[in-house]
Amino acid sequence: MSDNAIEISGLRKTYAATGRSAAKDALKGIDLTIPRGSIFGLLGPNGAGKSTLINILAGLVLKTEGTVKIWGFDQDVNARQSRASIGIMPQEPNLDPFFTPRGSLDVQAGLYGVPRSQRRTDEILDLIGLSDKADAYARSLSGGMRRRLLLGKALVHSPQILVLDEPTAGVDIELRNLLWQNVRQLNEQGMTIILTTHYLEEAEAMCDEIAIINHGEMIVRDTTANLLGTLDQKTLVITPDADHPDLPALPDGVTGEKRANGTLAFTYQSSKTPAGQIIDTVRNAGVTIRDVTSEQPDLEDVFLSLTSSR
Ligand SMILES: Nc1ncnc2c1ncn2[C@@H]1O[C@H](COP(=O)(O)OP(=O)(O)OP(=O)(O)O)[C@@H](O)[C@H]1O
């Protein structure tokens, strides 16, 4: 049995041409494995193909080519088992306004064939913080409560893998924290989590591994730590003791700027220039240094450097 939660190979999706628009290659041959037990981030600019990929995993979009194995089950061979292994929290709250949270969870459990005796409705209501709204009509729920209910619905059949499509887009900080708390708790219990997010600092904080797709192709897949290490660029910020009008002449490969707050910022490649050399250069130019801080590249820098040139 493989250690991967998801194994995708040669995955292609071409949306057929319609009256007004030409055919669109949304996925152009994706190979991707996602290890069991991880929190995996799927990132990419708008239109990159993330939703198409997730919808294929969910069985909502038919792939054009390639194989998809979910928890070891090939979608084409063991459709039922592969579907039972994954739960999807969609982007849009598509809830029936006349169902209560309890009713929605029950219907969903029924759709997945979970026998009544094995339903975890109360436990899920508790997890998503909706126990006291269990019997209120969905139309009376706030936007945040609806989002939480979507998470609950994705969990009714106790899937091994949970996919969250932009779970925190447009939600307030309180709900965002609650959702992340839920996600961490589920992951600690052994669930594999796959999420798409536009908030890169969130992916940086939450995900063990990340894949970035762009124009239907996977451009990188690595651990979050390695990705952050790929940008060798750092910035050293020096606060001078007194205002200093000019930047000193700098070693090759180092660029400097004077920021509006009077600090001097020097960007350099840490593999080529030691920080001490920059500090010495500044000091030798007659600047008395009051403070030194360093700025590391974040995931946003990595993302932009990988996607903007293509
Ligand atoms: N049903 C469809 N018919 C035709 N083209 C589609 C369809 N769904 C998506 N596309 C196109 O396929 C490409 C990938 O879209 P997709 O929604 O998968 O991207 P995404 O990365 O999820 O973007 P976003 O972050 O904006 O949701 C886009 O060019 C989109 O216009």
Automatic annotation (TrEMBL):
<feature type="domain" description="ABC transporter">
    <location>
        <begin position="6"/>
        <end position="240"/>
    </location>
</feature>
<dbReference type="InterPro" id="IPR003439">
    <property type="entry name" value="ABC_transporter-like_ATP-bd"/>
</dbReference>
<dbReference type="GO" id="GO:0005524">
    <property type="term" value="F:ATP binding"/>
</dbReference>
<dbReference type="InterPro" id="IPR003593">
    <property type="entry name" value="AAA+_ATPase"/>
</dbReference>
<protein>
    <submittedName>
        <fullName>ABC transporter ATP-binding protein</fullName>
    </submittedName>
</protein>
<keyword id="KW-0813">Transport</keyword>
<keyword id="KW-0067">ATP-binding</keyword>
<keyword id="KW-0547">Nucleotide-binding</keyword>
<dbReference type="Pfam" id="PF00005">
    <property type="entry name" value="ABC_tran"/>
</dbReference>
<dbReference type="InterPro" id="IPR027417">
    <property type="entry name" value="P-loop_NTPase"/>
</dbReference>
<dbReference type="InterPro" id="IPR017871">
    <property type="entry name" value="ABC_transporter-like_CS"/>
</dbReference>
<dbReference type="InterPro" id="IPR050763">
    <property type="entry name" value="ABC_transporter_ATP-binding"/>
</dbReference>
